[in-house]
Amino acid sequence: MQGLNPFTRGQEPGRPAPVRHAPMRPAPQAKAAAPRRDPAPSRLAYRLNRMMLRPLIRRLVRIGLPAFLAAMVAGIWLSDDTRRANLSSSIDGLVDRVQHREAFMVHGMEIEGASEVVDKGLRAMLPVDLPASSFEIDLEKLRERVLKLDAVEAVELRIQPGGILSAVVTERVPAVLWRHARGIELLDKTGHRVASATSRDVRSDLPIIAGEGANRAATEALALIDAAGPILPRLRGLERVGERRWDVVLDRGQRIKLPEDGALRAFENVIATDRANDMLKRDITVIDLREQSRPVVQIGLDAQNAIRRARGQQEIGPDGKPIDPATDPAGKNKTGSSAKKTG
């Protein structure tokens, strides 16, 4: 039966067992609902995030601010004179020890292609006495100073292994002598000054040009000298007139006046005419080609008197005046004309 306890001993049969009630569980109480957090950022956080999206602001924060702080700390540290002096002396000593290491020392100098005068001048231009550190020798500035020498056309400077300063010099080759009011100078083929000369005999093998501005037209002068050809042994030089044209001076006082434009072509025509007719072997003093359409030839005194004698006219003297036969001793006119011709 329901409620009977069959396992009881010493009790009356059929008596129901006492009912034990299970303890009551407390009813679950509802928790208080927590306030829901708003996921949107605050206004300040939003503005800061928007600012950090700008590249400039990010660079300022990541680079500018640390650099400013480092500079401020360094400035505060260097504001003390003693610390600044100690730092400067330490850096100078370190730089000096590095620069004067054996690997950077220059012990000697080798010069190739230079004459004795240029060699001495180049060695005198070294900014320091050897041996010296290679950091104390500015090769570019030294090269600019060497190129200021008139006789130097080009120079190559370099420091070779073993501490040798090598200088390969290309000197200007004298091509012509230039006589002017201040003396005589040697010029190269471009008209650049090479050196001074005390007299014409210093380089008698070179042609000579004269006149102001002749150095600026040295290239044209050399072209005229090359075109002289068969009359080159008779060539005494070229004279610049008015800094615009040339006069070719030959022996026996002959002179060829060339035009300002087309001087080489006009001179070649004279050479061709001389080859065909021996024009320059005659008694001609001046060939004026300044106006090429109307060339003018001036003959010598002997030729003029020969023509006057053929015409039955009175002979003239070196001054251009007629000679009175009554007062002229025999042979004086002839002697005077011969002297004119020889001069």
Can you put this structure into words, describing what you see?
There is one protein chain. The protein is of the alpha/beta class and 343 residues long. Among the domains are: 102-171, membrane protein fhac (Ubiquitin-like (UB roll), Roll), CATH 3.10.20; 176-299, Cell division protein FtsQ/DivIB (Rossmann fold), CATH 3.40.50; 301-342, no CATH class. The protein is 34% helix and 20% strand. It contains nine helices and 14 strands. The chain has a nine-stranded mixed β-sheet. A hairpin with a 2-residue loop joins strand 6 and strand 7. Helix 6 runs parallel beside helix 7. It is elongated, with a radius of gyration of 55 Å. The model is unreliable at 330-343 (pLDDT under 50).
Features:
elongated; single chain; disordered C terminus; Ubiquitin-like (UB roll); about 350 residues; Cell_div_FtsQ/DivIB_C; Rossmann fold; 9 helices; alpha/beta; nine-stranded mixed sheet; three-stranded mixed sheet
